Amino acid sequence: MSRQIPAIAASLQLFIVVAFTVLATGVLPAHAETPDVGWPQAASDLPAEPDLRFGTLPNGMRFAIMHNATPAGQVAIRFRIGTGSLQEKDDQQGLAHFLEHMAFKGSTHVPEGEMTRILQRLGLAFGADTNASTSYNETVYALDLPEADAETVSTGLMLMRETASELTLDAGAFDRERGVILSEEKLRDTPQYRGGTGFMNLLLPGQRVLLRPPIGKTDIISNAPVDLVRDYYRTNYRPERATLIVVGDIDAAALEADIRSRFSNWMSNTPAPAEPDLGALEKHGERVGTVVVPGGATRVQIAWTRPYDGSQDTVAKRRQQLIDGIGLAVLNRRISVLAQQPNPPFVSAQAGSQDLLKSAHVTMIAADSDPDKWQAALAAIDQEQRRIAEFGAAQSEIDREIAEYRSTLQAAAGGAATRTSPDIAGSLAWSVGEGVVFTSPAEDLSLFDAAMKGLTAAEVNQSLQAAFAGSGPQLVLQIPQMPEGGVAAVEKAYADSRAVPVTAPEHTRAAVWPYTDFGKAGAVVEQRVVDDLGVTMVRFANGVRLTVKPTKLRADEVLVRANIGRGRLDLPHDRPLPIWAAPAVPLSGLKAISYDDLQKAFASNVVGSDFSIQDGSFRFEGATRPSDLATQLQLLTAYVSDPAYRPDVFKRVQQAYLNSLTQLQATPGTVVGRDLPGLLHSNDPRWTFPDRTQLLNTKPEDFEALLRPFLSKGQIEVIIAGDVQVDDAIRMTAQTFGALPARPDAQERTDSSALFPAPTPEPVVRLQDGRSDNAGALVAMPIGDFLSDLPRAVAANVTGAIFRNRLIDQFRIAEGATYSPQGDVDLSRSIPGYGFAYVYVETVPAKVDHFFDLVDKISADLRDRDVSPDELTRAKAPIVEEIKRSQQTNGYWLESLHGAQTDARRLERIRGSIDGYQSITAQDVRAIATAYLKPETSWRMKILPANGSAVR
Asked: What predicted TM-score, i.e. pTM, was given to this entire model?
């Protein structure tokens, strides 16, 4: 399958994916062999994607090639090695992941440190376009090449071939990387990770996956000799375990010849190792366990396990999986409705099933709750599970899930011709790991329709019985501290719930969408075309502005955004504000229809209703398809003109924030994410995260009183980008937003701009309640906004890229002091005069002051001397290629055209962005450093371990 979309597989991952840690950094061939040999379709009645060119080399390495021109002129490469932490010996734990890091540290034909530079010169950014990940049973190397020319593609294939068998694994480089991986171990050691690991330990006792987390053991990472990683490399990186995937704007036949030439001489000199014994799934009945995670969420989980089904991927197996998914989607829907009721028993809940690393198949229902209300959450999910097991799903419920799932598959099939190469390559790599046939979106839809034809409630309910027939139920309570009475109290609460008889559910009638007529369609009073950009700008009589950018970038995709007013800049800044409650707006539904009924009404449609409060607007948006564009515009217009502000939904969002407070105190990264926006806006309440008192003191009516005036009176700008005709967009907008009562036109205000904080004589200190060996450090330097000086903004972005590259070279690569230095140049497009550059690292506490010294040293060097031509190229090329790539997405136009009708600078930014970056010189970089990268203007922050003391 192109990728498993079922209503179920994705939802379950929110609860247990943290335990499956992934560590990241046609024409038939002319050859005589059958191309599908070694691929799942060779033993299946399912047809593989017809545009893919499959093959297997004599040494056993498989390859798959596909010509795809979205984005045009680009190529995605994935090199999957079927080995991970499960293949490690006892003294190699963590070395599969360590080896992935070493793939960037030198090989026979690429000296240490040169691989990243080679890719940067070609326009690839470290991390974004060059990445790798290690999981339990695979290691995947990824390159997203910005050009499809012969040199770039050849370089990408050369680097994959080097990874296959030519890594030098130098002892010195190995030692220098130890600190990087130890830093990554700390970064990933979060309450969420510990909770997921604890749950897996109870779910799969005795299984090998529990003994082989990909990050490994810190003592082995710290002390293992390099020979152990060399042994792992020679033993497990083998052609018969490898799959090379290339998707992009290439000649597939020519590329196949190149692959055969490069990789056919790859041979293994060691005997093939036996596959590891994953262990037997333990059979059991009802049992109860707890996982205590200080600083973690409170989560109730009930699971049933059965042995993993490793049989071939076939039409019959797919049909059964689809039926299983529909039944569990009904259960998932029922518990989601419970969460929308007044005084719900939990904050959120989900149900689903999935395979766990070929070790088991699990069906699970889980809920997040207030720490003091886990008993109510337990009772609710237990009784809903027993209700559907006893009384089954109704045909009307099944039909609703079928309609919603079909609309998702229809959208995927409609957009198949413009799937992006990275998406196809990633999905194909996933299918290889799962051992399933890579079917086309059209085939997925056809299979679904055939499976659903004549599907009865009896068959779905039989599937549900099987889902709950494995070992279990196993109840696991994850909680920050053991409840009073310990495990016995949890057992009693479960027994009390199971003693409550369940009754048949009450089924509600179908819902009808009530917002189809907003009055007389608005008249167009101004229309102009920006010919060189292919953009049409319209103003209606009521003041609403519409900007349309028709594209063929993604077939069947239309993005719609409505910007209302000026967002945070409209808000008062003299008191705490309940901006955090923004998620309650879409979840409240509308005055004439509840959120659940809204979902019922749109089961067969593809529409969205996201809401956020941005610096420059209150934003509603959704992704749709051409046939649903009218409905999408009706939906967003209804949210703007008739929102509900339901108090019970506000309270649910409020409780979710209250529950998150201890988790946000758990690591340096979460503390920075919580506090930095407020700190870098001089503690302006419009950007400040609320504390517990502010959350508790805020009432639903406070949020409505704050937001309603701005949504009801603010200037409206609608932007539509995608597979749409201009006349259709104008007509449909006239019937919706254009039909609303008159709004004032955009008016600039300058009395509420935010200010960057004053320089810090000593760093601002925040504390985190996590590990004592982990700290964070951040430096920010003011620059200014983006639009007032476009050449400055472009030069600042290049300077920021050079700064980050140097920080990676020195603090990560040379010193091994951090895993992933972060940084950006964030110049506001909404706030005049506001913008900054920043760099941030997580490291050991003893290295924090050294980091500050290093930032000053890099800044001074950039001020004192010109950067080299090579360093300048390695900073500019990835930025230019990223702009080219983003301009081939509808999202780019949705973002870039905001405010363009009234601010011509925004159009000039689009026109001149690539030329602007290409023209930057070393002298421009030095000028930026001289003007802005100065210790005397910088703002600094440290996040230090609190050793148990909380600060919020």
From this structure: 0.93
